[in-house]
Amino acid sequence: MESNFNGKMTITDNLAKIKKELPPGVKLVAVSKTKPVEDILTAYNSGHLIFGENKVQEMVFKWEQLPKDIQWHMIGHLQRNKVKYLAEFVSLIHGVDSLKLLREIDKQAKKHDRIIKCLLQVHIAEEDTKFGFDSAELNDLIGSDELRQLPNVEVIGLMGMATFTKDRLQIRREFKTLKTLFDELNAKLPEISILSMGMSGDYEIAIEEGSNMVRIGSSIFGSRNQH
Ligand SMILES: *Cc1c(COP(=O)(O)O)cnc(C)c1O
């Protein structure tokens, strides 16, 4: 009962405002982590279908409660032992950071007779805390036999997170690095076509640097207490 009329208006307005700003070809993932199903329904009722969550249990709960035409994107760090819970319905997994995880996704996707789309997470931040491949590992993996032996996963792009910093130049530099890597891969393999970068604090820079998928939470749903 928290989301009163004003709350609903805010979500709808925020969403409309951001969608108007986005250039054509840039997809919006509305990041609804920690937010109640009512808030997601408000966004859904205004016509938005793509939502991002970072915890498996929470995403499963929301998937069960909400309309089935919602496309659920897993944007958080995914543990191998939890893939089985989302394999039935997940629409895109953003943060894949190991071949072992890809193998598990392939195995679980097979059980549901699905092909699960994935983005490989690239480590671009200068800080040490973010998961992901470096460029050498990425070049080894993409187009490799190991990847080809996983018929139930489809790698369609890259995802990255910039350093959490006020230094806009550093953020821009990190996004540029990822875009360069993306362009190199995309030139060889056109199926690598999604570049997921940019959040509430830095999506304008990300778009200027060539992102075609932004993951925006607090600018739509308001700030979060927990992470
Ligand atoms: C939480 C989260 C976002 C959205 O963050 P906001 O700052 O609220 O827009 C985007 N990407 C990932 C991976 C996240 O965990």
Q: What molecules are bound to this protein?
A: pyridoxal-5'-phosphate
CATH C-level class is Alpha Beta
Annotated CATH architecture: Alpha-Beta Barrel
Oligomer: single chain
The total count of helices amounts to 10
Distinctive features:
globular; 42% helix; 227 residues; TIM Barrel; alpha/beta; binds pyridoxal-5'-phosphate; eight-stranded parallel beta sheet
Model description:
By secondary structure, the protein is of the alpha/beta class. The chain has ten helices and eight strands. It has helices at 5-21, 37-45, 56-65, 83-86, 99-111, 135-141, 145-148, 168-188, 203-208, 218-221; strands spanning 27-31, 50-53, 71-74, 92-96, 116-122, 153-160, 194-196, 213-216. The radius of gyration is 17 Å and the shape is globular. The relative contact order is 0.15. Pyridoxal-5'-phosphate is lined by residues 31, 33, 54, 75-76, 161, 199-201, 215-219.
Topology overview:
Blueprint: H1 5-21, E1 27-31, H2 37-45, E2 50-53, H3 56-65, E3 71-74, H4 83-86, E4 92-96, H5 99-111, E5 116-122, H6 135-141, H7 145-148, E6 153-160, H8 168-188, E7 194-196, H9 203-208, E8 213-216, H10 218-221
Parallel strand pairs: 1-2, 1-8, 2-3, 3-4, 4-5, 5-6, 6-7
Bound molecules: pyridoxal-5'-phosphate (PLP).
Describe the structure in brief.
The chain has helices at 5-21, 37-45, 56-65, 83-86, 99-111, 135-141, 145-148, 168-188, 203-208, 218-221, and strands at 27-31, 50-53, 71-74, 92-96, 116-122, 153-160, 194-196, 213-216. With 227 residues, the chain is α/β, with parallel strands linked by helices. It has one domain: Alanine racemase (TIM Barrel, Alpha-Beta Barrel).
